[in-house]
Amino acid sequence: MGCVETAAIAQLLEPFIELHESRLRAISTYIDLLLKWNARINLTGIRESGEIVQRHFGESLFAAKYLLEQQMPQTAIDLGSGAGFPGVPFAMLAPEVQVTLIESQQKKATFLKELVHALGLKNVKVFGDRAENYPGTADLVMLRAVEKFTRALPMAARLAKAGGRIALMIGSRQTEPTRKLSSDVNWANGIDVPCGTSRQLLIGTKFIKVE
Question: Which residues contact residue 69 at a Cβ distance below 8 angstroms, ignoring those fewer than 6 apart?
């Protein structure tokens, strides 16, 4: 058992999603490993486990649930995965989807590989290099709290298949500038994340170019 009881995790996640016991235990293990690694490298500025559950897991799982209800992808990419959000919670929720975590910082990539092994996630691969060097594309590309956002967004569009989706978890003030940054993506209206965080889930579809 990790550092947070599953009953407490379930209660904190109530506004976002309802999970069965095995997934709650996996989240407890995840938090335990995250806090141990966070003492050595900066994976998250949030140090309190309850806040980690709501801010990181709540937001990621809310987005994953919505995206999976809309359309089940075969492949997904988490661009700039960092501590594994939103890609790892997404993969936990959708074991049939092949998920790639792209993380160029080697220490963070090493953490992600240990995390994937600890959670027994057979559907997750870690690409420990720059996104520019990733050779593939995916049906869904996810982006959350990435540095140099204006550079990351065009990369997300490149990594998405034609007709594929891009999902961003951003501050509500960022939604309008985002629409102007990517002319090859058709953006839907933003969806408010629960708990009054002023965060939105913004989903776009990459245009299919007609030759």
Answer: none
Q: Which residues contact 133 (CB under 8 A, 6 or more apart)?
A: none
pLDDT score at 180: 81
pLDDT of residue 146: 67
| Inter-residue contact 148 to 175 (CB < 8 Å) | no
Helices in the chain by DSSP H: which ranges? 6-13, 21-38, 49-52, 59-70, 87-93, 106-119, 149-159, 175-181
Task: Please write the tens of the pLDDT for every residue from 140-150.
Answer: 999 997 667 77
Q: Residues 55-65: what's their mean pLDDT?
A: 95
Ranges of each domain in the chain: 57-206
Buried/exposed code over 58-88 (b: 16+ C-beta within 10 A; e: otherwise): bbbbbbbbebbeeeebebbbbbbbbbbbbbb
pLDDT of residue 2: 45
Q: What is the C-alpha separation between 145 and 206, in angstroms, rounded? A: 21
For residue 75, what pLDDT is reported?
Answer: 98
- Pairing type for strands 124-127 and 185-187 reads unpaired
**Confidence at residue 196, expressed as pLDDT on a 0 to 100 scale:** 67
Q: Which pairing describes strands 124-127 and 98-102: parallel, antiparallel, or unpaired?
A: parallel
pLDDT band at 210 (very low <50, low <70, confident <90, very high): low
Domain 57-206 has CATH 1.10.10.10: no
Residue 139, phi then psi, degrees to nearest 5:
-70, -30
